[in-house]
Amino acid sequence: PRQPANVAAPREAPATIARVVCEDKVDIVTRKLDEAGNLIEKRRIQGDRVVYDRPTNRFHIDSAGVVHLYDRGEGFGPAWPTAPRRPAAPIATPGNANVRPAAYQAGGQPVVSGVRSQRRLAPGGLSPLKLTSIRFDDEMIGQLASTPQAGKRLAGQAEFFGNTRVIHAEVPNEETELDPDDPPTDYIYTVSRTLRVISEPPSPDAPPETPDRILVQAWGDVFALAGRGGRETAIQASDHMDYNSETGVSYVYGGDAGVTIVDQTGAGQPASYGRGSTVVFNHRTGEHRLLDARSFQLVDPRSGVRAGIPPAPPPRRTPGPRRDPFPRTPRSDKERRNFEGR
């Protein structure tokens, strides 16, 4: 039936973009700036075919690709202080000795190089910019950060498949990329078959600049390499690895095959190594512990130091000619008796 002339026709809902499909050498870049125009975070996704679902904020890459995450938060390395927490309870050992876990922080706060952690600021009063590059050979699906929804932020989760390689380090600007074959002095590099990254938003009463808590889980032939001031620590395991950015601690589990850790203080120096069931590595302090040790070898790094060039001896002074005193003729017995014979 025809509607009366004075009745308005129903208005259709405006069209919205629900899904974006990109193909052939895709390069997607998103940037977040503060009020002064400084970069806060940047996301760059590269692949042959990328599908973005806007309602769920999920990306899907069904080919090999690279994900670059620039931010000034915690990421995969130490920089941000955390709220005070209760100290971890000691672990009871067979020898009735209390051993603090590597995750223990004195006074309930993280400790870096013997002092309490402070946020190191870059020029302009900002935290240093850090880059996390994730390369994979097969597929990626999920969210790269926590997702805002209905006035709240929901945790985001991304999964990577196929020979995943992750490298994390501080960079001077957003145009810098990291090369695993030529890393900086302080870095973290991991290799695994599968990788999962979970971004958990902070509590509602946290300060606005509080970053997300990052949980990293890696499975299958895990290899991790951490550099800290020229010192490198390598960990290899066949099971999985867990990392928590809030504590800055990684747990590497070896399973039935065990886990191997190698620590070297510098290029060309002898290395210490050990085998066990689990390795606990604190990225803030560089401390690592081997649980259920099966075999190990400890090397004093000072034993491999070569002797330097000895100092030059002082100049030797050549003595001059020596003048002997005039010889004195000894007195005879006759002289002592005044030549009188008595």
Topology:
Blueprint: E1 19-33, E2 39-53, E3 58-61, E4 65-71, E5 91-92, E6 98-99, E7 111-112, E8 115-116, E9 130-136, E10 139-142, E11 147-149, E12 152-154, E13 156-170, E14 187-200, E15 213-219, E16 222-228, E17 231-237, E18 240-244, E19 249-253, E20 259-264, E21 271-276, E22 278-282, E23 288-291, E24 295-297, H1 333-336
Antiparallel strand pairs: 1-2, 2-3, 2-4, 3-10, 4-9, 5-6, 7-8, 9-13, 10-13, 11-12, 13-14, 14-15, 14-16, 15-18, 16-17, 17-20, 18-19, 19-22, 20-21, 21-24, 22-23
How does this structure look, described?
- This protein is mainly β and 342 residues long.
- The chain has one helix spanning 333-336, and strands at residues 19-33, 39-53, 58-61, 65-71, 91-92, 98-99, 111-112, 115-116, 130-136, 139-142, 147-149, 152-154, 156-170, 187-200, 213-219, 222-228, 231-237, 240-244, 249-253, 259-264, 271-276, 278-282, 288-291, 295-297.
- The longest helix is centred in the C-terminal third of the chain and has 4 residues, at 333-336.
- It is elongated, with a radius of gyration of 35 Å.
- The model is unreliable at 74-119 (pLDDT under 50).
Largest sheet: 6 strands, antiparallel, barrel
Number of strands: 24
Strand order of the largest sheet: 2-3-10-13-9-4
Low confidence ranges: 74-119
How does the helix and strand content classify structurally?
A: mainly beta
Report strand %: 35-45%
- Give the overall pLDDT as a whole number: 75
* Bulk shape: elongated
What percent of the residues sit in helical stretches (DSSP H or I)?
Answer: under 10%
> What string, H for helix and E for strand, traces the elements in order?
EEEEEEEEEEEEEEEEEEEEEEEEH
Give the helix tally: 1
| Radius of gyration from the alpha-carbon trace, in angstroms | 35 Å
Instruction: Give the CA-CA distance, first to last residue.
Output: 178 Å
